[in-house]
Every structure is written in structure tokens, then in C-alpha cells.
Specification:
It is found in: Endoplasmic reticulum. This protein is of the alpha+beta class and about 950 residues long. Among the domains are: about 40-170 and about 215-235 and about 280-350, glycosyl hydrolase (family 31) (Immunoglobulin-like, Sandwich); about 710-925, Sandwich (Immunoglobulin-like), CATH 2.60.40. Helices cover about 20% and strands about 25% of the residues. It contains 15 helices and 47 strands. Bound molecules: 1-deoxynojirimycin. 1-deoxynojirimycin binds near residues 396, 508 and 583. The site of 1-deoxynojirimycin has 10 residues, from loops.
Length: about 950
Amino acid sequence: MLPAGYFTVKEHEFKKCRQSGFCVRQRAYSDLVDLKKEPTPYKILRETVSVQKDNGVLTCEVLNQLSNIKYNFKLEALENQTVRIRLEEKDPKKKQYASVGNFSLVEEPKSTPFKTYVKAKSETEFSILEFGKNAKMLLQENPLLLTLKVNEVSVFTFNEKGYLHYEHHREKATVKNSEEPALKNEDSPGMEEVLAEELSEKEKLEKELKEKLEFGMWEESFEGNTDSKKYGIPEHASSFNLKNTRGNDVAYSEPYRLYNFDVFEYILDSPMGLYGSIPFMMGHKKGNTVGMFWMNSAEMWVDIEREVELKTRAKQTVTHWSAESGILDLFVMLGPTPREVSSQYTSLTGKPALPQLFAIAYHQCRWNYNDEADVKEVNAKFDEYEIPYDVLWLDIEHTDGKKYFTWDEVKFPTPQEMQNNLAKTGRKMVTIIDPHLKKDDNYYVSKEAKALDLFVKNKDGGDFEGWCWPGNSQWLDYTDPKARKFWAEQFKFESYKGSTSSLYTWNDMNEPSVFSGPETTMPKDNIHYEGWEHRDVHNVYGMLQQRATFEGHLLRSSNLDRPFVLSRAFFLGTQRYGAIWTGDNFAKWDHMEASVPMLLTIGVSGVTFSGADVGGFFGNPDPLLLLRWYQLAAFQPFFRAHAHIDTKRREPWIFGEPYTTLIRNAIRSRYRILPYLYTLNFEANLHGWPVMRPMMYEFPEDYFVYDMGDQYMLGDTILVKAVVNETSPSVKVYLPQGKWYDYTEFNAIDRPKDGLINYDTPTDKIPIFLRGGSILTRRERMRRSSSLMKRDPYTFYIALDDLELASGKIYTDDGHTFNHLKGSYIYSEFEFKINGNSGKLSSKNLLVKEFGASKVTKNYFKNQDVDFGGRLERIVIFGFKKPNFKLVEVKVENKILSFKKEKNEVFVIKDPAVFIGEEWEISFKFE
Ligand code: NOJ
């Protein structure tokens, strides 16, 4: 039985800004600033400024001239075109949480020297500090104002509008409105009556605003002379380009909220918080991309306001951020390209873990597969219908009374045998392991955790108790290193009875979801390790569970096997520990549509391995929706079908023909591109580039795509657009400048001047295009799972651009260990060129500096010293300019290769018998 009350959570049960004290006060402060047009009261105390040029650090004190409170201010030039801005109260009455960097940063960032430092002559002029590649900081002391410039273009301004408002801690009794207003649906947080008649409109407003004011944080703005777009701050079920929440043309009356929640039946097109929070934002305009994040794990609200600059008529976007607690610790990454921003950002917060090959294949999940017989049958059906799949998932019902790390002995009496049975065909199993632990003295995990005193405490110091799936439960305090170690140890094979090395983990409900708690989570005054309040660490909690699980996987395999952990909650740095998914969506067309901008946003915010429940979690999809979802998600990073316990079965064969064949084809299309996807995941691991990329990311100069969140690039080669309704026979797609090919037939698309085409979408395809100029590597032989394919040969798809050039890369390794770090990998680049009547396809090995030289470049197939294949069995080439082009000879060394011409001027060269990872040239002669 599900706990009463859980299934009634609705949007109105979550706080609005007007019900959150600090949000009200922050908004009121900025409104008041706008109204009064008075300068910010914050100024740098000139005599305190100290610059360590060689370390790239400026420190000083800042004074709030109204409250007389002093702050420590630190400005640092970091390596990789990054600036860190830190502001914290000098003598706080209560300590402010400032250590989330221990969790979010890979290491303490290194600074880089200032190249020049020119001190301002007076406090109203600018000091100039140059650093990095053509980057500079311009700092004005009074009022406090900071501008960052790259190549003389200002890309970021801090406190330009004077919204900075850092509330110092005060005792409750002396502060009006300092209590959080009760969670009720009222319009005002209890303001006093105003003597309206006696006041002018402006004064009235000012008085109102002042009354709303008590505490808040800071303001930042990116400014520029073109309309810069803003992306990021997941997770919201909203557009890719962030919408206005303040000023004119307001799309949302509420700011975007960042607070990890278990929102039941979340609504679309809303700024309300969801399961994860990443306080990262990307700003983009032609020629320039910047990124920033505020390293703080407390609740945040972010207002977005686009305004027109009167003199130039240009637009700029001001974003106004508030956090409930912690300090201001801001990082700005200066790009100037989206790729550079990703790489700078993930140098700080960590590169995405390289997933195992199986993890990027297809996953079959439902709440629940009922028992071992059910698992066996589902597994067998995949084979019967010749549909590949890699992982079968077990939800909460597999446990003994929702006690994680246990099995329901009646339904799952022989879990190891069950896993080994799947493993015979290279398949894995995932079990769900949630963070709430049943309060039960007979449950060994709870008992030991209690004995070790590892639970989160309530405000009175006792172990916090709340309601979740198992009934009364307790939560490990993952901010405590002892608790993380304890948790990691639970995954050892001797601890987790019934587990095998092919079992991986799903961490759900880790926002944390507490059915009996305020807004379905923990009370903010719960107490964590070292006495910090839950309010300080709320948003990092779930990530720390995923981290401890990840560490548990490493532990159980003695660091030999790459972990796979799926988490629902996420935060700054999550990418280091595994995948996330977008939680409980619906079996509805608009939810499938919404998955695209949601995943794009999550991807640019560093979490490159993400997906949405295929088919939709709640409700029953009709077969066409299910099919369209498969076709789309086959081209998204994490590909898992999942369904709520109350839904009807919907495995790929359930709806019969033609759907079984069409869904089979969609899943197979995923398996074909696994080599490409694996390469993209490797590039994510190396550089932080998203696997699923917004159009602006690949075409940063094309203004037309800046707002585009409904089509995307999978890597730099494949363009995808969803079919989002059942009726329209075609879909409008925008193809940026350049050459494009239909993915199924490799027909060159006749691109109109405006780039907009109508693409027919019969049930067997959605709009997918191959970018001219690329070489896509696929594996065409279908097997039961990805690991059975790992020695299979490859096929190249060479899609020529207008200059008849193409290039591509491939990365591969054994797909599951860390041996690549010791050189057991292949990273190769291929290039095709035409010169007059001859052409050349060449293969070159690339060095991955981080992994050392590749050990598998010479004769490795003869030695069989690596656990993966590399033979090229076919080359498909298309896009020659001249019609009726005649290919007369293809040769590798002295061997003539056979080839044929298919329809649409597509040439197929058979068995070139070369290997990726070796260097070679294939020559082409034409007439
Ligand atoms: C909520 C999760 O979002 C969903 O995927 C899962 O099936 C249920 N919890 C039950 O564990």
C-alpha cells in the first residue's frame, strides 16, 4: 500500500516565492533599488585592498554603508580563463556554510598570475587586472562594481544594478518577518496595513517594499551589446532558453527555484524546482559564451530579466540570484566558445565519468518485474523477438519489505542465479537502493547505522524519523565521511547478499523524499555532520548518496570495474558519479516533447549522461507515442524504458505488429551507433562536452538557433528532432548552413535558403540527419547485447561536405575496466579528401595525454592483447558533387578492393580489411 497523502501532492503544495521569506525580501530589495535609483551601499574599503600579483589574488574588505557590516571580498584569476569571486561576512554571528566545494570541486582551483595590475586613482575609477588570454577584471571600489572583459568585450558584470544584498545574521526576535511565512496559498506574506491615502504611489510602493525587505544575497548580470541568451539552472520542466521572470514580457511570475524535490506529477512549462539543482548558467551571444556557477547548496531562486538598453536599443539579460544560507562563492568561466566553457566548468566540478559500454545501451525497467519467472520470461522474449537489450531493472518490490540490500525471498529466492542467467548473454541487472532506511531493529543496515550514529538528526538532536516507502524511516547523513564509508561497504559482495558482479545500482528518492516532511522533504532545521543545518546542504544530499554508492561499486571490484549508478537527485559535480534521469514524467506527447529541452539544459550544466523514462512513467502510452519515444530516446544519452506500477505492460512486443518491428528497429538503431555514442561519452569524459548538444552549441554563430530547444545535435554529427504529435504527417526542421543528409537513405537534402524544411515522418522514422563533412562509425551486426558486439567489425559512413571533405573520430576500449587509463585504448581520426580525380581516406592515431600513449596501435589483433575489436568491414560514401560520378578503383596498399554503387550515388566499398587503431591510407580513383 502506498502511504496516504503521497498521491495528492500538487503544485500548490510547493512554496511560491511569495511564501519564501528570503525570496520575497530579495525581490523587494531589487524592486526598491529600481524605484529609488540609489547606488548600492556596498563599497570596497580602499585601505584594505591587497593584491598578490603572482598568485592572481585580490583581497579587501567591503562595507555596507547602511548597516555598517563588513565583508571579506576575494577576487581570484584561476587557470583556464576562470574568475572566482568570494564574499562573506567578516564577523558573522553565526557561521556560514562554506564547504560545499569539498563535494563539488575536484580540487582546490589553482590561480594564475595577474599579468598587469593598474590601481585606480580614486575609489570611483576602475582598477584593471589583466590575466589569462586577453581577459581582464575592472573593479570599481565605490560603489562596488566588477566587470569582466574578454578581447575588450564585456561579458559579465557583477552588481551593475546594485541588487547585491547580503543579509547578515540577526537574532529572530529583533527582525520583522524573519520567520518563513507559513505554507499557504495567500497573496501576501503578512504585510502591515499601509496608510495609503497619505502616501504618493511611489512612496507607497517604497514603503511596501521596505516592509518586505529583510534578508537576501546578491546580483550578477551578464551584459553585452547584443541580446545574450541564458541557459542552464536545471532542473525545471521548461524551455532551453530561460524565460523572463521579472520586468517586461514576463513568462513566469515566479523566479526559477533550485531546491531538490520529489514533485508528484510535475507540471510542464514551470519554474518550480524538481529533483535536481545545478546553480550553473551559460550566457551566449554571437562571438561569446560565458558560464557561471554559484557554489552553494542551499535553496535558491533565480530571476531572469531581459531589458532594453536605452541608448543602444540593445538587449541585455540581468539575472538575480538569491540563496537562503551559505556564502557568495561565484565562478565565472570566460569561454569564449560553448566547448571551452564546458571544459573550463568541468575542470572545476569534474569530468563526467566514462560509462561502461552496457550503460549506454538499452535498459528495460518497470515498477516492477514481479519475480524470477517474470524476469526470465521478459529476458527470453527479447531474444524471441530479436530485440537487443543490456539491462533488466528491479524496482522497490524486489526487496523484503522495502529494506534495501535484501530480497523478497518468495519472489526472488535465487537472485545470484537470476543475475548469472542474464550475464550469460552479457546482460546486467540493476536494483534500486533508496536512501531511506526502515526503522526496524531487525534490519541489519539500520541497526549498524544506528550503532555507529550515522543518521541525520532532528533539531532536538535525536535521530530524524520520517515516512517513506518502508513506513517509518531514517536517513544516513551522507555529508559525514563515516556514513559514506559505511554506505560504500554495504555494496561489498559479502555484505550485499545475493549480489553479483553484474549487478548495478539505482538511487531513487534521494532529494531526499520524505512523505511526511515539509514540501515532501526534510525539515530545514534538521542537523547534519559538524552541526550544519539541512538548509545548508539540502541540494548536495542526493549527490552524496550517489557518490557513496559509486565508491561502493569501486570497493567491491577493487577498483577494476567502472561503476554504474543512476540517481534522481543531482547537483554541481554529479557528472563524476554517473547518470541521472528526469523522474516521474507522463505517458503524454507533451512530456516526451519536454524531455528534449530538459535534457539539453542538464547536459550543458555538466551532467552529460541523462535520459527520460521512455514511454512516460505515469499512464498508458498509446502504441504510436511509445514508438515515437523509442525512436527519439534511441538518440539520447541514457536510454531506459520505465513505467509506474499501476500501468499496463508495455515491453517492446506488447502492442504487436507493426509496432514490434518498428520498436525493434528503433532499439537496433541505438545499437548501431554505440561506437559513435561511446566516442561521445569519451569526449564528455575528456572535455566535459555534452553528448546531446543544443543547436547553439554546435552552431554558436547562427542566431536563428539560439532559442532552439526542440531539436538537437547528438555530438557534432547527427541532428535529431522529435515527432511530438500523432497527427501531423511531417515535421518542420531547421538545418543550419552546410550540407545535410537524410539519416536513413543518405539522400542529400536540398537545403532552402532559410534552412527550414518539411520532413515527412511516416511511422518508421523521425527526422534524423547526418551532417555533411562527417565520418560516422557504426556496428551493423545485431546481437543480444552490447558486450556481445565488442569484437564486431565497423562500418564507416562518409558524408561529404560541399568541398567533398569529411572527417571523424572514434574512441574505443574494453568497455568496462580502467585499463584505458594505462594505455589500453584506441583513439583514431579519419579523414577523407579529394584532389582532382583521386581521393584518399586516411587513419591516424591520436594521443590521449591523460591516458598516456596507446598501447594498442600495432599488431594488437595478432597478439589478442586487448578485449575489443577494430576491423573495418565496409565503407559507405556519399555526397560527390558531380552527378553520375564514376568510381573506378579503390586500393589499400597494393590490394584492390571491391565496391558497388547503390542508388542515390551511394558507394559501398567491401571489406577494406584495415583496422582502426592502425595507421593506413585507402586511395580512390575517379573518372
Ligand atoms: C519514484 C521514481 O521516480 C520511480 O521511477 C520509481 O519507479 C518509484 N519511485 C518506485 O521506486
